[in-house]
From TrEMBL:
Domain DXP reductoisomerase C-terminal: 268-384
EC numbers on record: 1.1.1.267
Gene: dxr
Residue ranges the record marks as coiled coil: none
Organism: Collinsella ihumii
Keywords of this entry: Isoprene biosynthesis, Magnesium, Manganese, Metal-binding, NADP, Oxidoreductase
Domain 1-deoxy-D-xylulose 5-phosphate reductoisomerase C-terminal, residue spans: 153-236
Protein name: 1-deoxy-D-xylulose 5-phosphate reductoisomerase
A Pfam family recorded for this sequence: DXP_redisom_C
Single Gene Ontology MF annotation: 1-deoxy-D-xylulose-5-phosphate reductoisomerase activity
InterPro entries assigned to the protein according to its UniProt record, in alphabetical order: DXP_reductoisomerase, DXP_reductoisomerase_C, DXP_reductoisomerase_N, DXPR_C, DXPR_C_sf, NAD(P)-bd_dom_sf
Biological role: Catalyzes the NADPH-dependent rearrangement and reduction of 1-deoxy-D-xylulose-5-phosphate (DXP) to 2-C-methyl-D-erythritol 4-phosphate (MEP).
Cited NCBIfam families: Dxr
UniProt: Mn(2+) binding residues: D157, E159, E228
Length: 394
């Protein structure tokens, strides 16, 4: 049975944005700003950036907000919330806000494994889930996908939105392969020795996308593509061999699906996250573009390449985790989050990231995924183990 989307009495879809102050969240606000006749923001959350949260709440006249960092309770900035706007604190407050009766669609754009519990609650509540948190599926895809009705979970990652659209009108059983594209990041073509010397500033200089710090580092290590490969397996019900990673330097082909007869359907467009965000809100309709169009007459060339998993070992580790399955992807994700934070803080090197992740994976006794509680326990274990490995290298 397919999911039936709902809307408010005025015909607008009522949106809650979890993580409205991050890169995806602020671009979602822009989409809602451009399509105010079709979208109504009814609830917003942020972790700690309360000034930006208040500004968004005032602009969109939101009646409910949540701040997941409970230390912000009493922050003077919150006194400027619009009249009648309720504010709650803590992770559970964000979930409660998302599953309220007056919410039709929830954009989960918070970073990391914290999105898993929220995604599960949203699906259980029968809300439409626009998922920009890949870690939810990497860690808990075995739990989330059986909960989702067709059309209820809409991917927001540019690559997965592209694949989703390449399947539209086609028979999935006649697909031959998914080509999952990536730019290759700022260090494409680097050797392992060169990667040993890169700095945080080097790694944050992504060639084509403007993203938050954590995902930008993941793109530089190619861990992001490894996580997306696991996510694609869950979303589209395929195995790791079916999903092939392809370097596409200009980031204009966002992914492709190849069919049995040799035909390849590709999704092309601007490198602008507002486009997949908007499609998750508008599906199955298409609205006027929120971004400048690509003029293919002046684009020049489209370049392709194969990733170097010897130099970029995070991609290799993600493949191991994806093929092994069970709780190993949870360890991969948690350890990577800790290692990336350490790199950003200057306490480990760029290539230490994959070394730390690998040490945690080697120490883990893989189990079948059984519950959110089990995954939370393993996530905590992996973070402690990764912190120990980071300390040993600092």
């Amino acid at each position: 049975m397919s999911f039936t989307a709902t809307c408010g009495e005025d015909g607008r879809k009522r949106i809650a944005i979890l993580g409205c102050t991050g890169s995806i969240g602020t671009q979602a606000l822009d989409v809602c700003r451009q399509h105010a006749d079709k979208l109504q923001i009814v609830a917003l959350t942020a972790h700690s950036r309360v000034t930006e949260l208040v500004a968004a709440a005032r602009e969109f006249n939101v009646k409910r907000v949540a701040v997941t960092d409970e230390r912000r309770d009493g922050d003077p900035a919150l006194q400027d919330l619009p009249d009648g706007c309720a504010c709650a604190f803590g992770a559970q407050a964000a979930v409660d806000l998302a599953v309220s009766d007056d919410v039709d669609c929830v954009l989960v754009s918070i970073v990391g494994a914290a999105g898993l519990a929220a995604s599960a609650a949203i699906l259980q509540a029968g809300k439409q889930l626009a998922l920009a948190n890949k870690e939810s599926l990497v860690v808990g895809g075995d739990l989330l996908m059986p909960m989702a009705q067709p059309g209820q979970l809409l991917p927001v990652d540019s690559e997965h939105s592209a694949i989703f659209q390449c399947y539209l009108g086609e028979r999935a059983d006649q697909a031959h392969a998914i080509w999952l594209t990536c730019s290759g990041g700022p260090f494409y073509g680097y050797s392992r020795d060169q990667l040993e010397k890169v700095t945080v500033a080097d790694a944050l200089a992504h060639p084509t996308w403007n993203m938050g710090a954590k995902i930008t580092i993941d793109s530089a290590t190619l861990m992001n593509k490894g996580l997306e490969r696991i996510e694609a397996c869950h979303l589209f019900g395929v195995d790791m061999d079916f999903v092939r990673v392809l370097i596409q330097r200009q980031s204009k082909i966002h992914s492709m699906v190849e069919y049995e007869d040799g035909s390849v359907i590709a999704h092309l467009g601007a490198s602008d996250m507002r486009i997949p965000i908007q499609y998750a809100f508008s599906y199955p309709d298409r609205w006027s573009t929120p971004a400048p169009r690509v003029d293919f007459r002046t684009l020049g060339s489209l370049d392709f390449g194969e990733p170097d998993t010897g130099a970029f070992r995070c991609l290799h580790l993600a493949e191991i985790a994806g093929r092994t399955g069970g709780t190993l992807p949870c360890v991969l994700n948690a350890a990577n989050e800790v290692a990336v934070a350490a790199f950003l803080d200057g306490t480990c090197s760029f290539t230490d990231i994959d070394r730390i992740v690998e040490s945690c994976m080697d120490d883990h006794d893989v189990q079948p995924v059984q519950s959110l509680e089990q995954l939370a326990d393993i996530d905590r274990w992996a973070r402690r183990r990764a912190a120990e490995a980071c300390a040993a290298r600092s």
